[in-house]
Design goal:
Blueprint lengths: L16 H25 L7 H28 L11
Helix pairs in contact: 1-2
């Protein structure tokens, strides 16, 4: 007999409203920290594409990716319209 592969494990959505809020705050804080690091370490005299744009884009990409996941939670929420769900 040939080898069998097990079915894919189903996704588990065990996220709570408080953990969603924590994730949103963490994403915002990480992005703000990255932006602050650029502002504090880069001056007009030493600014280059390499020390401004890649770190900025990386921070923004992480924020957008995290926001997508949070929007999925909003889309699959069983809460009635407006019940504990914002923005």
């Amino acid at each position: 007999m040939g080898s069998q592969t097990l079915p894919q494990v189903p996704l588990i959505f065990d996220t709570t409203p408080s953990s969603v809020l924590e994730d949103a705050r963490r994403l915002t804080d990480e992005c703000r920290t990255a932006h602050d690091a650029i502002v504090t370490s880069v001056t007009p005299k030493n600014a280059t594409f390499a020390n401004v744009i890649p770190p900025f884009v990386h921070a923004e990409n992480n924020l957008v990716a995290g926001r997508r996941l949070l929007r999925i939670y909003k889309s699959v929420s069983t809460a009635s319209s407006g019940e504990g769900v914002q923005g």
